[in-house]
Amino acid sequence: MTATPEPGGRARQHEEALESGEVYQDAEGRRTTDADIGAEHADSEAERNAEHLERGEIGPGIPEK
Fold first, then answer.
1. In this structure, what DSSP letter does residue 9 have?
2. Which residues, other chains included, contact 18 with Cβ-Cβ below 8 Å and sequence gap of 6+?
3. Which helix (H) or strand (E) holds 10?
4. How buried is 26 (Cβ within 10 angstroms: 0-12 exposed, 13-18 middle, 19+ buried)?
5. Angle 42-59-27 (CA atoms, 0-180°, nearest 5)?
6. What are the DSSP calls for 27-55, one per residue?
7. How far apart are the first and last CA of the chain?
8. How many angstroms separate the CA atoms of 51 and 60, rounded?
9. Confidence of residue 47 (pLDDT cuts 50, 70, 90)
10. Residue 25: which residues within 8 A CB-CB, separation 6 or more?
11. Residues 39 and 33: beta-carbon distance below 8 Å
């Protein structure tokens, strides 16, 4: 008898990996198992967000009035 995978089982495995810290994911969906690369992604996003704020953008490409 073969076991059939549960629906959503793969998604649950991905979520468990994220929650346990085995996998790091950034806002753009980039995933890595390397903590240093995860930190680099986070720093990159923070710098990009700061640049947007300096230009007065408060949302996705929306300049503040």
1. H
2. 24, 25
3. helix 9-20
4. middle
5. 25
6. TT--EES-HHHHHHHHHHHHHHHHHHHHT
7. 65
8. 13
9. very high
10. 18, 31
11. no
CB within 8 A of 14, min separation 6: which ones? 23
Block residue for tokens 């903590």? 35
Residues 28, 11: Cα–Cα separation, whole Å: 17
Residue 49 has pLDDT above 70, yes or no: yes
18 residue type, one letter? L
Q: Per this entry, what is the length of the chain? A: 65
Domain locations in the chain as residue ranges: 9-58
In sign, the C-alpha dihedral spanning 27, 28, 30, 36 is negative
pLDDT for 61 beyond 70: no
Which amino acid does the sequence have at 26? Answer: D
